[in-house]
Write the structure tokens for this entry.
Amino acid sequence: MSKRIRANEHCYLSLNKYHSMKNLSRFRIGSISLLVFFFLSSCTKQAGTPDNSTGLSSLRDTSLLNQPYGSNPRQVYDIHLPANRDTSTPILLMIHGGAWKAGQKEDLNGYVNIFRQKWKNLAIVNINYRYASFANKIHHTEMMGDIQKAVDTVLAQLNKFKISSKMMITGASAGGQLAMIYAYKYNTKIKCVGNIFGPSVMNDWSWYNSTNPLIGGFTGDFLAEYVGKAWDTTAYKAVSPFWNVNVNSQPTIIFHGNLDPIVPVYQSQWFHGKLRNLGVPVEYHEYIAFHSFDNTQSDDVINKMIAFFKVHLK
């Protein structure tokens, strides 16, 4: 049996544990429960492939961890700077999943390592953000603000980091939805978008109005905490990637498992169709998989994402 990424290994074992934990901020995506609901997968380290790196400097490979972009403990990021970087070195912004209520950037370290091996001239920014919470009044707007603040903090230090301002974005599950809506609605300077089984139609009533045994609860409860209110067609469309794209939207690559019991695969199929009809450069790749990919599939996802981004990074 193929090994799953670390986030997958514990997801089902932790479903019941989640319900007994009152403090969601202490819940780790590595022990995912319902966060199979929206977790961002990462995979084990594998051999890299050749890369058309154009970095020409003599700078060394450097990783700066837990760099602050705000005063909240969740407002930190890691930045991985490649050797020989220069002003041709683009940035990949990565956003973890966790049903908007849990997870951490470290859950993506497997993906980070593989990206670094396969794309030598790439800077990676991997962020944490504040969790959605009615109690703390953190919802969509505040989470978009966190992503923007992290981006602004990095861009203000380009001379220090010795990299380009060109930025791509990716995420999976909740992180995929956050990546898409941020790029389409709030930052059109993002060059390309990658979505790994993230929801694109938040105003999907049949999905909202479902109870899923894998997450142990009512789907609408999780969506409401992110949006900031219970079902409201206008509010839910406003945070849906599907309803926030147009002919000028960024090139997008989408990945989904055709057996996904958490985020309906038809949402990605619909979204692919809409982007294609708009004339937006798009690729859609569907795998025989649930709400996760095995190592072989994950490696294929990264290879395809890198190839797509290199074509459309302008």
Residues 6-312 form a domain with the Rossmann fold fold (CATH 3.40.50.1820). Residues 1-53 have pLDDT under 50 and may be disordered. The chain has one domain: 6-312.
